[in-house]
Structure formats: structure tokens, C-alpha cells
Amino acid sequence: MSPPTETLSPAQQQKLRSGWSRIRHAVGFSLAGLRAGWSETAFRQEAIAAVVLIPLSFWLGRTWIETALLAGSVLGVMIVELLNTGIETAIDRIGPEWHDLSKRAKDMGSAAVLLSLLLCGGIWAAALYHRFSA
């Protein structure tokens, strides 16, 4: 016999849901994650840039593939930033003391953001060159 749902943690309750209830709750958790990301300066800056760059990708891209690469690279930066923030938050929850592994995890998250920004910048530079040099 399973325990009453009132005694289960929210994570355990989510695992018991199915169908539309699970989807609705999952969307709520995702929106809460976006709200939490908005409190981070870097994510906010990237989101504001996305408001400009994603519509611009529809003008700059000549094919649907170019448009998808341009818009996708911008969204990719935001995704990596959210994951990096999640890593940093989890490390900070463990404790404020300095540890080699904590620093390594945070540095790797930061490196992932840097690589996503370089990829995005390269895609946009190539598209701009292709658009205006021909």
C-alpha cells in the first residue's frame, strides 16, 4: 500500500501524476525555472538580446535552415546559461567553503556558456557576412 499523497514530497507527487496533470505541473515547474533564471543578470541580458535577435533571424536567414541556426544558437546560449546557473546554485547549496571540485564544476559551467556564446557569435557573423558580402 502506498503512502497518502499528502505525506509525499512535491518531487514524489510529480512522479505519481500522469496525462495532462503531469504536463500541466511540468509546465509550471519550467515557468518557475524561467522566473528564477530571470533573477540572474546574465540570463536577463541574454533574454533581452533574444527579443531582438530571434525576430532578426527571420529577416537575416535566407532559408529555414539559416533561420533555425540563427534563432537556435541564441536559444542555445540561454539554455546553457540556465544549466550553468543550476550548477552554481547546487554547488552553493552544498556550502560556501572553497573546494577544488566546486571551483572546477563552476568553471566548467562558465566555459560551456563561453563556448555557446562563441558558437552563437560565429553563426551570426557568418550569416551577416553571407548576407552582405554577396
Question: Your description of this structure?
Answer:
- This protein is an all-alpha fold and 134 residues long.
- It contains five helices and no strands.
- The longest helix has 34 residues, at 100-133.
- It starts with 9 loop residues before the first helix and ends with a helix.
- The model has no long low-confidence stretch (mean pLDDT 91).
Element pattern in H and E: HHHHH
Terminal Cα span: 70 Å
How much of the residues is beta strand, in percent? under 5%
Radius of gyration: 20 Å
Mean pLDDT: 91
> Major beta sheet, specifics?
none
List the helices and strands and how they pair.
Elements: H1 10-16, H2 19-38, H3 41-60, H4 64-94, H5 100-133
Helix pairs in contact: 3-4, 4-5
Main features:
5 helices; single chain; mainly alpha; 134 residues
Describe what is shown at a glance.
The chain is 84% helix and 0% strand. By secondary structure, it is mainly α. α3 (41-60) runs antiparallel to α4.
